[in-house]
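Sequence design from tokenized structure. All designs in this work follow the same two-part layout: the structure record, then the generated sequence. An example of the structure record is given first.
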């Protein structure tokens, strides 16, 4: 596992998101590529349906690098295309969906479960770096 940058030891080079995504083979398994304060930047590949969930204590940012993400809400949805981002406010129930594979960058506080309050078999381990 690569060592994490620290305040006294910054990363020796820029982070190439495409290169990091090339190391991700499993879908719905976010991998940390950087931290800023208490927030983690995670790359992830997704396809298909996720689970309905919410995050009571934090917003969640989705930045689509490739593909089209549909974020369903109980009263509608939003489409997020390549080069676009969307912030789901804390406490809002949502269900990500991708008809075809989507590559994304997620920004959320360290320790937040990807399945929020739902839990279950789709819950990915936290703090896994690539």
């Amino acid at each position: 596992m690569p060592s994490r940058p620290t305040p006294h030891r910054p990363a020796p080079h820029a982070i190439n998101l495409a290169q990091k995504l090339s190391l991700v083979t499993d879908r719905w398994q976010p991998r940390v590529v950087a931290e800023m304060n208490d927030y983690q930047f995670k790359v992830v590949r997704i396809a298909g349906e996720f689970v309905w969930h919410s995050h009571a204590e934090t917003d969640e940012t989705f930045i689509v690098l490739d593909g089209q993400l549909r974020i369903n809400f109980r009263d509608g949805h939003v489409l997020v295309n390549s080069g676009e981002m969307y912030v789901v406010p804390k406490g809002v129930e949502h269900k990500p969906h991708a008809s075809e594979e989507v590559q994304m960058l997620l920004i959320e506080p360290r320790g937040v479960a990807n399945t929020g309050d739902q839990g279950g078999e789709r819950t990915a381990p936290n703090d896994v770096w690539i």
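Helices lie at 17-22. We note this feature because it recurs in several other targets discussed in the main text.
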